[in-house]
Amino acid sequence: MKILVVGGGGREHAIVKKLSESKKNPKIYVAPGNAGTEEIATNIAISVTDFDSLVDFAKNEKIDLTIIGMDDPLVGGIVDRFEKKGLRVFGPRKNAAILEGSKAFSKELMKKYGIPTADYEKFNDPQKALKYLKGADYPVVLKADGLALGKGVLICKNFEEAKTGIEELMIDKSFGDAGNTVVIEEFLEGREVSVLSFVDGTHYALMTSAQDHKRANDGDKGLNTGGMGTFSPSPFYTEEIDRYCREHIYQKTVDAMRAEDREFKGIIFYGLMLTKSGVKVLEYNARFGDPETQVVLPRMENDIIDVFEACIDGHLDKIDLKFKDNAAVCVVLASKGYPLKYERGKKISGLENFERKNDIFAFHAGTKRVNGDVLTNGGRVLGITATAPTLKEARNKAYEATKLINFENKYMRNDIGISIDSYD
User: Are 194 and 310 part of one and the same domain?
Assistant: First the structure.
C-alpha cells in the first residue's frame, strides 16, 4: 500500500509515525516533509499548494491513499482536485473546510443550529467596526475571518487596543486577505480544552482530549503562536462535560454541515471554553491540531489506516476508537524570536537520544537535513513528547527530554501543563 501525506510540520511527522506502525506496512511519501519524516518515509519536494504536481505524483506513483495535514490546501480545495482524478483522499472538500476557513461562516452556523458559542458581530468595513467597538463591553476578542496560522486572534482590554487591532487586521492587512472580514466576539473566561474527532459525513468518533498553550511566553503572556506545547488528556474535560458536548455540540455540528449540503469527512477539531455558564465553542479546525496531534496519536491504539478508510467510506460507526490509559505532554522547542523574527540554519544535536524509544519522541516541525546535519528551518523546530502513567510524570519526563536536545537560540516555555497541578 502506498500513502502520500501532504505537509511538513510536527503534525505530519506524528501522522507518518503512526502510519509506519500500521499492520498494512505502507510505503509512505511526504510532500514536502522534514528531516524527521525523512527517516521513516520518502520526502517529495512538492509544495503543499502545488495541487497539479501533487495530483500528478499521486497518479504516476499509483498512491492508494493521500492524507492532507494542513489547513491551507484543504481550504483551497485540494481534496476536490484529488477526487476529480479518481484518487482516494482523506480530508474535507472545499465547501466543508470553510468550517475552519471562515470564522464568520462557523459563527453563523453555530447561531443557526443552536450550538453554544460566544456572542459576536462581523464586519467588513473598519469604520463600522470601530463605531460598534465604541459602545462594546470590554474585553473583546477580534478574529480575522480567514486563515492566519493560529495568530489572527487579538484580545483587547479597551477601545484603544481594539482600535489598534482593527487597524492591524483590516487596514494594515497584517494577515493579508484573512482580515477582509473581522469577527468581534464577547470575551469568554474559563479553561480551554481541545477535542479532536474523526468524521465520516454522518458519524463522529472522539479522540482523547488535550489542552494547548498558544501564547509565546510563560504565564500565557506574549503573542499568539501556532502552539508552544500541549498535554493529553485534559483532567478538566469531565464525563459530565463530555455528555453535554455530545448532546449539544459534536453531533449537532456534523448534522448542521450535512444539512447545509457541506458533508464533512475528515477531522473536526473543537476548541472549547469551559465557562461558568457552560461549554462554548471557541473555534473549529478542519484538520488535526498541531501540537495536539503529537500527544493524541501516540496514545491511540487503533491502526490509523483503518480509521482513515472508515471516514472516507462512511463506516466510522464500525470502528471502536481506543486510547491507552496513560498521559502525554509535548513541549515545543522553538527558535528564539518566534513568532516574529528568528534565525534558521542552526545545527541540532542530541536527536540520537530519541532513537528506538517508545516513551519519548522528538517530532520534527521546522527542520531540514543538509550534508548529513539536521538544521533548524522554522519558528517551531521540534515537539518533545513524553508518555507516562500520569500527567505529572509525563510532564517531568518531557522537560527532562528537552535537555537532550541542543541548538543555538533554543527557546521553550517552562510552564507547559502547569495547570494540572491545580486539579485535585
Answer: yes
